[in-house]
Design goal:
about 425 residues; VC0802-like; Rossmann fold; nine-stranded mixed β-sheet; eight-stranded mixed β-sheet; 17 strands; about 35% helix; elongated; binds adenosine-5'-triphosphate; binds magnesium ion
Length: about 425
């Protein structure tokens, strides 16, 4: 019989003291919504873990795959269920470990149902001895090692059937979705801002995305398409998202027309921050997020980052500031944004690029450079021109709702990329 229960372990949440139940409720909520469409009988919280009981017709492979994107999960495992007698537990443990590769093992039992007559230690000894005997019979020399075993066979006795599992699957860690407040992320379509978003989401932040696009480029190179795809890839981690699409070319032309050439890129960035800040204010977000990394390009020297950031009285979080490109790309590959960002697309920023960009601007330099601009009017223009889209996870797929149109399944370049495809 296929396993019908998934055991979910979390860590770090216990650090939160009195907020523990808030974090746990959010985690259970995220698990519920992630498993939407898969028959789940119930989700319980015995002791310090979560048990997901799958319905008769549920596919456990699909459930396991989706859980890999639930922040707050340290690890999880699909469990064998056994009757509550010793024979059945021993047998289930043997079935669970017999095909595994290991040379040392331990049995760890947890009895959260105290009406069960045998204490944990006794279950561990009994099952451990049984496994060792069966291993010997099978001609294997595997040893018990309680300190640092290769394989741990876990036995959980809670009300209902006993759970036995030994194959742990790593979760993404972090804190559950929607536990840390709202932020607005400037999403360019490049590698960095998608990874920056992931890192903040991993700490429980709920992000809205804003993407600035130009016109031009070849058909199929739209940066809008790239921003949509990345938003679709990131949505499962936080369950819902907004994407604001802001036409930027006329704002850039205004900057090109009235500001000294060497400051252009920095002034584009300042206008982006101002428009993002206005959006943050409207949605009651508390901070902005960018993908800047110290010294990566001319606009990201320490001086330039400070001078750009001085345009808004907001916290601008730059979670990649201390990371190497290689580290960033490794995360992008892992979370499935790499191939999207790697596609050629029409980035608005290289348009009208200065021949010699300023490397060390001060806030005062930039204030002077944009003295001829009506920044408030440009912010209004950006807000008025913006289109808004909502994304949400429904039955394991990301659905896009372009307001005011009806819901459409977000389409990827290779079919329904918005669905939680294996390895995505
Ligand atoms: P990325 O890989 O995120 O594009 P990058 O290293 O290419 O980053 P820049 O292009 O200089 O760096 O952009 C720095 C940051 O400014 C980006 O990480 C992003 O947060 C923001 N940004 C740049 N261009 C845009 C855009 N068109 N729309 C939204 N945000 C943008
Ligand atoms: Mg970029």
């Amino acid at each position: 019989m296929p396993p019908r229960a998934i055991v979910v372990h979390y860590h770090e949440l216990w650090l939160k003291g009195r907020n523990r139940s808030f974090f746990l409720n959010r985690l259970v909520d995220a698990i519920h919504r992630t498993l939407d469409g898969i028959p789940v009988e119930r989700i319980g919280r015995p002791g310090d873990r979560i048990l997901v009981w799958l319905g008769e017709s549920a596919g456990s492979e699909e459930a396991l795959r989706r859980l890999e994107k639930v922040f707050g999960i340290a690890y999880f495992a699909s469990a064998r269920t056994a009757e509550r007698d010793r024979e059945a537990i021993r047998e289930a443990a043997w079935e669970e470990v017999k095909d595994q590769n290991f040379s040392t093992f331990a049995v760890r039992a947890k009895r959260s149902d105290k009406s069960y007559p045998y204490p944990s230690l006794e279950i561990e000894r009994d099952v451990g001895a049984y496994l060792q005997a069966r291993l010997r019979e099978a001609g294997r020399q595997d040893q018990v090692n309680l300190r640092a075993p290769d394989l741990v066979c876990r036995i959980e006795v809670s009300p209902g059937p006993v759970l036995v599992y030994a194959r742990k699957i790593a979760g993404p860690g972090g804190l559950p979705a929607k536990t840390a407040g709202k932020m607005v992320c400037l999403l360019s379509g490049g590698f960095d801002s998608a990874v920056a978003a992931y890192k903040m989401m991993k700490r429980g932040a709920h992000l809205s995305f804003v993407h600035f696009y130009g016109t031009g480029g070849q058909a199929g190179e739209s940066s809008i398409h790239v921003a949509r795809e990345i938003t679709s890839r990131l949505t499962p981690y936080q369950l819902t998202a907004h994407l604001h699409l802001v036409p930027f070319e006329s704002i850039q032309r205004e900057i090109v027309r009235s500001a000294p050439e060497e400051f252009r890129v920095l002034l584009y960035r300042r206008m982006m921050l101002r428009i993002a800040a206005a959006m943050a204010e409207r949605s009651r977000a508390l901070a902005l997020v960018t993908g800047d990394s110290l010294g990566q390009v001319a606009s990201q020297t320490l001086e330039n980052m400070v001078a750009v950031g001085a345009a808004v009285p907001w916290h601008v979080f730059r979670p990649l500031v201390g990371e190497d490109k290689e580290e960033i790309l490794a995360v992008a590959r892992r979370i499935g944004t790499f191939e999207i960002s790697a596609e050629p697309f029409h980035d608005c920023c290289p348009v009208f690029l200065p021949r010699r960009p300023m490397l060390r601007a001060t806030p005062a330099d930039l204030d002077r450079a944009e003295a001829g601009l009506d920044t408030a009017a440009l912010v209004r223009q950006g807000l008025e021109g913006a289109a808004h889209e909502k994304y949400r996870l429904v039955a394991g797929c990301v659905e896009r709702v372009a307001r005011p149109e009806a819901a459409v399944r977000a389409q990827g370049s290779g079919g329904d990329a918005a669905c939680d495809a294996p390895g995505a």
